[in-house]
Design brief:
Layout: H1 4-7, H2 10-15, H3 20-27, E1 46-51, H4 63-69, E2 73-77, H5 78-81, E3 84-90, H6 107-124, E4 128-134, E5 138-145, H7 149-160, H8 169-176, E6 185-190, H9 196-208, E7 212-219, H10 221-225, E8 232-235, E9 243-246, H11 252-272, E10 275-281, H12 286-300
Helix pairs in contact: 3-12, 6-7, 8-9, 9-11
Length: about 300
C-alpha cells in the first residue's frame, strides 16, 4: 500500500495553498453549470443565485427575488456546481523512461505524483474525481467519487501502477470516452507518443462530448535535447527485444527536426480541438509546474466550451 507522503509532499502542497482559488476555477469554475442536478426540491442544498440567461428552464426562476428586484434570477444548488474530474493516466512502456537515472525520476513516477496532487486538490474542493489507467487498453478504473477516503483509493492505485505495454492513444481514448457518462474536466497525463492524427481524433471524441480537456504531456529532458554523444544502445521500452546500437551524433539533427515537427503538429491539433496542452519535464518540480498551470488558466479566463 502506497503512503500518502510518497505522492503528496507537505512542502509541495503548501506551495499550492495560494492557488486554491485558481484550482477551484480549473475543477469547477470553468465548467460551472455544466452538470445539472437530477434532484429537485429541498433535498439539494441551495448554493447561490445567478442571473437568468436565455435557455435556462423557467421553472428554476426565483419569483420571490423577482418580486423584490424586478430582475430574473435562477437558483443553483450545490450538486450543480460540483464537478466530475476524470484523470486518465498513461501507464505504457515509454512512460518508464528515466527509471534508471541515478538522481532523476521516471516519467511514470512523476506523472503519478502529478495525478495524486490533482486528485487531492479536487477532493479538497468537494469535487468528485476518478482515475483510469491504461496502456494498450484500459487497465484499472476508480469511478468518480468525493470524500477524503477516496484519496486513499486513488493513491493506492497509482502506487501499484507500473509501466506496461505499448499503447495506441487514439484507440484507447475512443474506448474511454463513451464510459464518461457525465460531462466534466478530463485530465490526461501522458507522454503522447504515437500517431498524431489518431491522437487528435481521440481527443476530439472527448471534445465532442463537451468535456473540458487538458493534457499534461510528460517529458524527460533527454527526449527534448538528445544529449547522447558516444555510441549508445537504445532499447525499445514497449517492444521487448528491439534494440539498436548507433552513433547518436549522426542521428541528432534528424531526431530534433522530427521532434519539432511532431510537437508543432500536436500543438496545432490541440488548439483546433480546444484542448489545452501543457508540457512538463521530470526535472521540473511538479508542484511548481502545476501552480504555473493553475495560474495560467486563471489569468487566461479559459471559457467553457459548450
Amino acid at each position: 500500500m502506497a503512503n500518502t507522503t510518497d505522492f503528496l509532499d507537505p512542502k509541495d502542497l503548501s506551495r499550492l495553498a495560494n492557488h486554491q482559488v485558481l484550482a477551484r476555477r480549473v475543477v469547477e469554475g470553468f465548467c460551472s453549470g455544466l452538470h445539472r442536478s437530477p434532484h429537485k426540491g429541498f433535498s439539494v442544498e441551495f448554493k447561490q443565485h445567478r442571473a437568468y440567461t436565455p435557455g435556462d428552464e423557467i421553472r428554476r426562476l426565483d419569483w420571490k427575488v423577482f418580486a423584490k428586484t424586478d430582475r430574473f434570477y435562477v437558483r443553483e444548488y450545490e450538486e450543480e456546481t460540483n464537478l466530475r474530474c476524470h484523470l486518465l493516466f498513461d501507464a505504457s512502456g515509454s512512460m518508464s523512461y528515466g527509471s534508471n537515472d541515478e538522481n532523476g525520476i521516471s516519467k511514470i513516477a512523476y506523472g503519478s505524483r502529478l495525478a495524486a496532487c490533482l486528485a487531492y486538490l479536487c477532493l479538497r474542493q468537494t469535487d468528485s474525481v476518478g482515475l483510469t489507467t491504461f496502456d494498450s487498453a484500459v487497465r484499472s478504473v476508480v469511478p468518480p467519487r468525493g470524500g477524503a477516503s477516496h484519496t486513499r483509493q486513488i493513491i493506492d492505485l497509482l502506487g501499484a501502477t507500473e509501466a506496461g505495454e505499448e499503447t495506441d492513444l487514439g484507440k484507447v481514448f475512443h474506448e474511454i470516452a463513451p464510459q464518461l457518462k457525465k460531462r466534466g474536466l478530463v485530465v490526461i497525463i501522458s507522454d503522447c507518443f504515437g500517431d498524431v492524427p489518431s491522437i487528435l481524433k481521440g481527443l476530439a471524441h472527448f471534445n465532442h462530448a463537451k468535456h473540458d480537456v487538458v493534457v499534461f504531456q510528460i517529458w524527460h529532458r533527454d527526449e527534448l535535447e538528445f544529449p547522447f554523444r558516444a555510441w549508445t544502445r537504445f532499447d525499445c521500452l514497449e517492444n521487448a527485444g528491439v534494440r539498436h546500437t548507433v552513433d547518436p551524433v549522426h542521428l541528432r539533427e534528424a531526431y530534433l527536426e522530427n521532434l519539432r515537427e511532431y510537437r508543432e503538429e500536436l500543438l496545432k491539433g490541440c488548439h483546433k480541438h480546444r484542448v489545452q496542452l501543457f508540457p512538463m519535464t521530470t526535472d521540473e518540480p511538479y508542484a511548481e509546474g502545476l501552480a504555473s498551470f493553475l495560474a495560467a488558466r486563471g489569468k487566461a479566463g479559459m471559457p467553457v466550451h459548450l
